[in-house]
Specification:
Layout lengths: L10 E3 L5 E4 L2 E2 L5 H11 L5 E3 H9 L7 H16 L8 E4 L2 E4 L7 H18 L2 H12 L14 H27 L7 H10 L4 H13 L3 H19 L5 H11 L7
Antiparallel strand pairs: 1-2, 2-3, 4-6, 5-6
């Protein structure tokens, strides 16, 4: 079988609700189990997904005795949904499992990873403004929690955690690149919002304190550190991380936060 022909506008999205548009038509099924099956095939585009992996995802540790027969029925219905004209070659049987013949580049997560890598390389090279643009473009691919319209079993649930960790890393690196590019004042509102939503994220708090210090707001930076230190000690029984303690020492000595 040849990989399905990808036309301009054909897209597959997992960074938000799952969507699949082929030839201008929305091919994502509405039936929960078919959508879950499609997600399992879509996160490994062009690769065979073992029957056992699909059964485990769809029924976890309690599959019915008829699981394989039921899975075969699901595949039949999904194949007809994806290829109503019966041309073949979209969803193929590939022992010991099934394969979705779609190019990985069509899936938004592939572009996200490409931009994430590009941003890291640009940051390493010191091209901070370009790095910030790459990370921002990567983050703009997200429209919500990954696979938001799917009841995820164990495999897809783990995959969403993996994606969210990469999104968090891209966000942190985007902020870092913006600060290095001299946009610390512009990032203060973003950082205030993010630290309010996630009050124990020490990376975000360190970036906020740095941005405040670089903006000439030393007293606000010290107040932010003290607020976080109190919350961490009172609610978690821990002290701020080494990076935050170093920033605090520099602020007390009227130095500037690490750039």
């Amino acid at each position: 079988m040849h990989a399905m022909t990808i036309e301009p506008g054909d897209t597959a999205r997992v960074l938000g609700p799952l969507e699949l548009h082929i030839g201008g038509a929305d091919r994502a099924p509405s039936t929960p189990k078919l959508l879950q099956l499609l997600a399992m095939l879509l996160i490994r585009p062009g690769k065979t997904v073992h029957v056992d992996s699909l059964v485990h995802e769809l029924w976890n540790d309690a599959p019915p005795r008829s699981a394989r027969r039921t899975l075969h029925t699901y595949v039949h219905h999904l194949r007809r949904h994806l290829d109503p004209e019966g041309n073949g070659g979209v969803l193929v049987t590939s022992p010991p499992g099934y394969r979705l013949e779609i190019d990985a580049g069509v899936v938004d997560v592939s572009e996200f990873h490409r931009l994430h890598r590009l941003g890291r390389d640009l940051l390493d090279e010191g091209d901070n403004a370009a790095a910030a643009h790459a990370f921002r473009t990567a983050l703009d691919l997200w429209s919500g929690p990954p696979l938001a319209n799917i009841h995820c079993g164990p495999t897809l649930a783990a995959y969403t955690v993996y994606l969210l960790e990469h999104r968090r890393n891209a966000r942190d690196l985007w902020i870092e690149a913006e600060i290095r590019a001299g946009r610390h004042r512009e990032m203060l509102g973003v950082l205030r919002s993010l630290t309010t939503a996630d009050p124990f994220d020490e990376t975000l708090h360190a970036q906020l304190i740095r941005a405040l210090g670089l903006s000439g707001r030393r007293s606000d930076a010290l107040a932010s550190y003290e607020w976080l230190r109190t919350r961490l000690e009172d609610e978690l029984g821990v002290t701020p991380c080494a990076e935050l303690r170093e920033l605090h020492r520099e602020l007390l000595s009227e130095g500037h936060p690490i750039r």
